[in-house]
Amino acid sequence: MKITPLDIQQQQFKGKMLGGLDPEDVDAFLQSVASEMENLLRENNELKEQQARHNREMAEMGEKEKDLRETMLAAQRITEEMKANAQKEASLLVSEAELRAERIVMDAERQLGDLKARIEEVRRQKVQFEISLKALLDSYARQLSGDEQS
């Protein structure tokens, strides 16, 4: 059975004829107990409210912690994906650079072949020119020696 401060205040005692209770002392004591009980009940309610508030705060903190963990995991996944993408991109760039380098080398080798062929053609033309010039000089020399004999 629960006793409230009001129950204590309204409690009546039967007095005895001889050596009974002093009603004023009893009333004063009951007022004191009722007041103390009222304070205790108020304090108890405040503590319950405080505990409920703390429980809510703890639940909120738990949610925040969970959200923070999820955010950290997401950030870690994104970082790993970014690393992987950067490595793929770097590999592609290296591959493209290697292909360009191969093309440059092939073009240089082709140009070298073309230059060698042109040099060979110029040498052949030089030899041909020298032969033609010698033949022409021989022809003029014969003509001059034939003119001198006549």
TrEMBL record:
Q: Which InterPro entries match?
A: DivIVA_domain, DivIVA_fam
Keyword Cytoplasm in record: yes
Subcellular localization(s) per the UniProt record: Cytoplasm
Alphabetically ordered keywords of this record: Cell cycle, Cell division, Coiled coil, Cytoplasm
Q: State whether keyword Transport applies.
A: no
Q: Which coarse location class describes where this protein primarily resides?
A: cytoplasm
Cellular component (GO) terms are: cytoplasm
Instruction: State the coiled-coil residue ranges.
Output: 105-132
Q: Name one GO biological process term.
A: cell division
Question: Where is the segment annotated Disordered?
Answer: 47-67
Entry's family note: Belongs to the DivIVA family.
Q: Which PANTHER family match?
A: CELL DIVISION PROTEIN DIVIVA
User: What name goes with this protein?
Assistant: DivIVA domain-containing protein
Query: What is the protein's species of origin?
Result: Oryzomonas japonica
